[in-house]
Design a protein that fits this description.
The structure is a homodimer. By secondary structure, the first copy, chain A, is α/β, with parallel strands linked by helices. Chain A has helices at about 10-15, 30-40, 80-85, 100-105, 110-130, 165-180, 210-215, 235-245, 265-280, 290-295, 305-310, 320-335; strands at about 20-25, 45-50, 70-75, 90-95, 135-140, 185-190, 195, 220-225, 230, 235, 255-260, 265, 285. In chain A, helix 5 (about 110-130) runs parallel beside helix 6 and helix 7 packs parallel to helix 9 (about 265-280).
Chain lengths: ~350, ~350
């Protein structure tokens, strides 16, 4: 444990004040929170985002700091547009990607192009024009499939349950490989379910959590499929911290880390906590839909001790507090997200 | 153990006599041997091959049966050309791919396109136009990287040491996933070093073994890098048997299997066996080249018991015999391969 939470600010500011940073997917849920944190640390932030209407991008996510970032609208597959943004940067937070599991069933080729092929092209670009760049990649715990046991550490077998997980795993593997082959300063964070302000809530294209938040806000019952399944929920600000700390930890390079928050809880318990955080609501328990069962991962809880040991990171937000802040955010910004 | 080697012919003939079969990469080393075996079993064989000058394809490989197969020249990325060949087929032996590890460092995007993106498109095509097709995919042991211990079974962690292994693993993962998601009858064979007639020997783009065969034929010393490393060598006819048996074993579907031959031997021992098989030759021991060290896997020996148990397969060719047949082949066909 190098640093404790109270000590984070100093090394982060030392690293990022005045630093030229690029955030791909920076108009998205986690990317926008990360961009806000980088600005607060004094970084010069460029954002590259496709504003894909089926993804997590929402201009409302960056509205409060839109005039302080350089936004380039483009697809991560368009290496030509990315090239001038890579040159001269110190850090790349590489969050552009497809995250929808169901979406990857509908458009598997598109999913592979964005999550692996474009990532490989980007890495080739980095090693050519800016080999000193620090690159933090957004991976996913989905690659483990249905866990053998909880909690899941990084040595768990990789068993992708859907096309998205195959492509995300390949994209991550290229990041780690380019560290070993070419010395690129890469690290990948295998994210768990993330919640908080900025999550896409108008439908389930980003996460089931978004739909739950929306239904609670609209006074509709949360539809819980089954309810016994366990999930590990991370608050978006804690996840942004993880990206920042990953970038400044030399010992993290070339490695992939689970990021959780823990302890896990059942979806039934989560629904009750959401209702409590909102100050009201109801639950409707439904059978698990058959079209999702085939790609379902069962339970998940991250063992993220490796990441904590290397970076000193720890989640700072209790679930009840994070949920309350989430509802407060959407209540005041409802028109931007529904 | 369902069937013993002596019993293979009957079930294979029952499955393949009159069957409409497509072999991608069928002008290549293993694909051409497999096509010859399929013809001998009475199958109606179509071959799809790009005839890529940097790959394993050599018209000499199919010269003896060229008039008995339907050959379509095309890239596996060209789904439009593949579509009419998929319809109405009973079996697809999917061997088209990039196999060069060094080549994947030079052209990683091309490697990913061929070994994963094209494979995914092909699977999408199969599930759309011919969901009953039996598909056997050529995987590779390269995905394991540097083994933790020998022999290596299928539960060994996947640690791709080069771009080729990342892409081949993704291509395999899609095959297995499409079994689970859509019921496609897929199986993948993780091949070890394969030798025998038809191997590209004019350079090292297919395997180091090719260069060794060429140097022995030309009376030059075999250049052994180090020599301590262990390899598991499989004779091409035995590998062709493995593909055939994999196709007719329902219990194999949705699974990936190591294919070896065993026991492993050191490269120094292999060089001596080659010299003995040829009736003369010499060895020059050189240090391991630094540009290959970074992607080198160290030792390898397959634990292929799972495949043997499910299919009854066993290698039938002793290394000394296989090497002798290899040299006999090239001595009579030198002009076609050098």
């Amino acid at each position: 444990m190098g640093i404790s939470p109270a000590d984070w600010h100093r090394p982060l500011e030392a690293a990022f004040a005045g630093a030229r940073v690029l955030v791909t997917g920076g108009v998205g849920f986690i990317g926008s929170m990360l961009s806000a944190r980088l600005l607060a640390l004094g970084a010069e932030v460029a954002i590259y985002d496709s504003l894909d209407p089926d993804g997590g991008a929402n201009p409302a996510n960056i509205a409060s700091f839109r005039d302080r970032v350089r936004l380039t609208v483009g697809d991560v597959r368009d290496t030509g547009s990315l090239a001038p943004l890579i040159e001269g940067r110190a850090y790349l937070f590489n969050l552009a990607g497809r995250t929808s599991h169901m979406g990857s069933l509908e458009k598997p080729v598109d999913d592979l192009e964005v999550n692996a092929l474009a990532q490989l092209r980007l890495l080739e670009l980095c090693r050519t024009v800016n080999p000193g760049l620090v690159i933090v990649h957004a991976g996913t715990r989905q690659i483990y499939g249905r866990p053998d046991a909880l909690p899941v550490d990084e040595s768990h077998p990789v068993r992708p349950p859907d096309p998205n997980a195959v492509a995300k795993h390949a994209g991550e593997a290229y990041h780690l490989l380019y560290h070993r082959l070419y010395g690129l300063a890469t690290v990948s964070l295998r994210l768990t379910n993330t919640y908080g302000p900025g999550l896409r809530i108008k439908d389930d294209r980003q996460a089931f959590l978004g739909v739950w938040v929306r239904r609670v806000l609209q006074g509709e019952p949360i539809e819980v499929w089954g309810g016994e399944q366990r999930r590990d929920l991370a608050y978006v600000e804690d996840v942004a911290d993880a990206f920042l700390l990953a970038a400044i930890a030399p010992e993290a390079r070339g490695r992939a880390f689970n990021i959780g928050a823990g302890p896990s809880l059942s979806l039934g318990e989560l629904a009750q906590l959401m209702i409590a955080a909102n100050g009201g609501g109801s639950v409707r328990v439904l059978p698990f839909p058959s079209d999702r069962r085939r790609i379902d991962i069962g339970d998940y809880e991250a063992d993220d001790r490796a990441f904590r040991a290397v970076t000193g990171w720890a989640p700072r937000t209790m679930l009840a507090d994070g949920l309350k802040r989430t509802f407060d955010y959407y209540r005041s910004r409802r028109g931007d997200y529904l």
